[in-house]
Amino acid sequence: MKNTKKVAAISIGILAAILLVAIISTSFTVVKAGHSGVVMTFGAVEEKVLSEGLHFKAPFIQTVVQMNNRTQKTETEGTASSKDLQIISYSVAVNYHVNDSSSASLYQNVGMDYSSVIIVPAIQESIKAVTAQYTAEELITKRQSVGDQIKSALSEKINQYGITVEIFNIVNFDFSEEFNAAVEAKQTAQQNALKAEQDLARIEVEAKQKITQAEAEAESIKLIQDALSKSPDYVEYIKWNKWNGELPTVMGDSGVLLNMDDIAGKDQK
Fold it and tell me: What local confidence, expressed as pLDDT, does residue 89 receive?
C-alpha cells in the first residue's frame, strides 16, 4: 500500500513538473528579426503588436503569429491597352514592405496571403489605368514617367492596408508584331529623311563653294581687264612671266619643222 502511494506521489510529481515545464515554455515567445508578432487571445486578434525579441504571453490562451516586415518582392505579368488601343504585354516587379504598426490589422482583415489578395490585383489595375492615358509610342519614349505614375497609383491603393511600395520596375513592355513593324518603318523613314537632309546640306555647301570660286574667278578676270585697259604692256608682262626660257618648235607652211633654237644659234654665228 505504501509502495502504491509512493508511486502515485512520484507520478503526480512528474506530471506537475511536466505541466510546469509546459506552462513555462508556452509563456514566452521570440519574435524573429525583421518581423512583428501579432497576438491572438482565444483566436481574437489583439491591437498590440510585438516587436523583435523575447516576450511573455499567457500560456495556452494566447498565440503569436510572425508577420514579415522586411522588403519583399512580387513579380507579375499581364496585358493592358494603350490610348491608341494597342495591346501591351507587360512584366513588372514591385518591392514593398508591411508596416510594423499595420501588421495586426493586415493579418486580421486579409491574412498571410496579402500578396495575391491585395498587391497583385492592385498592380494590374494600376497598370491598366495608367497605360490607357498614353499612346503605345509614348509608353516607350516616356517609360520612366509611366513607371512613376503607376507606382503612385499603386501606392494609393495599398497604403490603406499598411503596405508601402519601395520600388516599382517595368521589366518589359511588349507590343504586337504589327506595331513593332510600324515603329521600325518609321525609324527607317526618319533615318532616310535625315540622310536626305544631310545630302541637301552637303549639296548646298558645295554649291556655295562653287559660287564663291566663280565669284573669285570673275573678280580676277575683272582685275586683269582693268589692268589691260590701263596698261597694254601688261599682256607682254604676263607672257614673259610665264615663259620657261625655251623657244618653241613650229611647223612652217611647207610642212618643214623648224627648231627655233637652231635658228637662233645660226643667227649668232
Answer: 93
78-106 pLDDT, tens digit each: 999 999 889 999 999 999 999 999 999 99
d(C-alpha 64, C-alpha 204), whole Å = 82
Cβ neighbours around 141 below 10 Å, total: 11
Please name every residue paired with 35 in a beta bridge, in sequence order, or none if there are none: 68
Give residue-wise pLDDT tens across range 193-207: 666 677 677 777 777
Q: At residue 247, does pLDDT exceed 70?
A: no
Residue type, 13: G
pTM of the model: 0.62
User: Given CA atoms 8, 12, 13, 18 in this order, what sign does their dihedral have?
Assistant: positive
Exposure class string for 28-40: b at 16+ Cβ within 10 A, else e: ebebeeebbbbbb
Dihedral angle sign, alpha carbons of residues 177, 183, 189, 192: negative
